[in-house]
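Protocol step 4 of 6: record predicted structures for both targets in the notebook before any analysis. Target 1:
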Amino acid sequence: MTAYAPLTIVCDGCFSNLRRSLCTPKVDVPSCFVGLLLEDCELPFANHGHVVLADPSPILFYRISSTEIRCLVDVPGQKVPSISNGEMAKYLKTVVAPQIPPELYDGFIAAINKGNIRTMPNRSMPAAPHPTPGALLMGDAFNMRHPLTGGGMTVALSDIVVLRDLLRPLHDLNDAATLCKYLESFYTLRKPVASTINTLAGALYRVFCASPDQARKEMRDACFDYLSLGGVCSSGPVSLLSGLNPRPLSLVCHFFAVAIFGVGRLLLPFPSPKRVWIGARLISGASGIIFPIIKAEGVRQMFFPATVPAYYRAPPVK
């Protein structure tokens, strides 16, 4: 059976076979998640997701039912220890388990012994569309970010709302060329939410990964302590994380507020040449983390979307 449509929405996920003809895919795999299901144990703080700042990279815990907790262990790089020959179980027990909160330790070991371990590559891919008459990419097939912040569905649902509002005034989708020209505005209108969450996910992952570099350690500690201050220092980043505040400039301000907070802690009460040097490297490292991500997202589309001509596309009139 063959079906034809004037507009096809392509959303076949992170392993998409169709994206190559609709975008320029630059897929990066910074790490892999190792998934476990912990049973009959309690989180240290009920009804909250947990991020453990472990070495070498973060570990996530969150409840998915009344008896089950999902655990995702981030393993840097594209290769993970083999599950079949027992290397993975050994790695989890010797490297990861000692860093697990005591409340979850027994459940973590039991989950390893049960052997139901799953792995998944964590992919990142900036949106680089080729406007194509009759087709539109969405979801992970179109744009991915590190899943540490769980922002994928937020971006996807936000994209759906943008597309719905663009399609609502249309009564005829059959003029593919005109429709394609009009829908180019979708790629600009989605940017505030998508670029904010994408940039935050990439930046937080880089900051939360352990490093032997003292400046990176200071940045990680400063980020944790900045969030612990509460008030706008907590609610601001959380509103960015959840997509409730889709302002990229606000994200940049908070990110460098963390860096300046870290430098301030180093220089007070008495700065020394060594501390000044670490502070300078902290600012340099922070810039090296966030600016490449912003460049990949597109500076103009991120911060000045109103200057992009497609932003003002009106619906075709027949």
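Target 2:
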Amino acid sequence: MCASTVLLLALVPAGGHLVTTTDCYRKTRIFMETFLPKMGITVTVIDPADVKALESALEINKVSLFFTESPTNPYMRCVDIELVSELCHRKGALVCIDGTFATPLNQKALALGADLILHSATKFIGGHNDVLGGCISGSTKLISEIRNLHHVLGGTLNPNAAYLIIRGMKTLHLRVQQQNSTALRMAKILEEHPKVRCVYYPGLPSHREHHIAKKQMTGFGGVVSFEVDGDLFTTIKFVDALKIPYIAPSFGGCESIVDQPAIMSYWDLSRSEREKYGIKDNLVRFSFGVEDFEDLKADILQALETIESA
């Protein structure tokens, strides 16, 4: 979050304008909606696939920055990085992609035309569910502007955290390879399962932006979101029946993690407020670790069996 907030404060001037997408990390959205307006900064929120809305925002406002995740959290929506970079650069706006879900291995946003790439190093880069950190990559000019403000605001990584992140990066390629493979295989199984209503994974042909993901990603990541066929309590029952994953609001580590956003990341909102952000009661976000595929498959299938058929 320190990386995100410092980046936004450094690159969007007071009274400036920012464009972002509907589906995104909740804390980033809160910062944009509640804090940035105090500096006179206005925000346009668009659907990740709505290129016309981006063009219109760039036309109407003097946009400093387009900030989005790709894939997004938790519905794994994908933005055509090459296209949005071209549109934004034409109007003098910068593009920052939060590539945390993609990992630096599966997607090279800078090579696709983005100006900056942001990662939560807490997730796949650290990879062991034991360290907090963030990182930003881009040109020396932009990074220097961000770094100067970062030195003023603080939020510095401590040496032990830096050591843990370096350690994690040594196995990043091995972990991500395994996670890509397990997630894709499991997404296909879940999509066919009668007790699963819907699966959100950019590697599936049924995904809204599969054509974009296929073009700009070499693997589709280790996180699969899906809707269980049931209500809030049926979903709680399913999550509780799982034996392998930890129940926690994180992802990208060696250990599998399961998250039910309605009662975890969005626990403080009423049902109608959650639905405004598209967070359904039966939504599950599953981060696949490096455990054996057959063990994970058996665990998920047995947990789904605890759900009574409608």
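Step 5 preliminary note on target 2. The CA atoms of residues 203 and 220 lie 5 Å apart. The longest strand covers residues 63-69.
Proceed to step 6 after PI sign-off.
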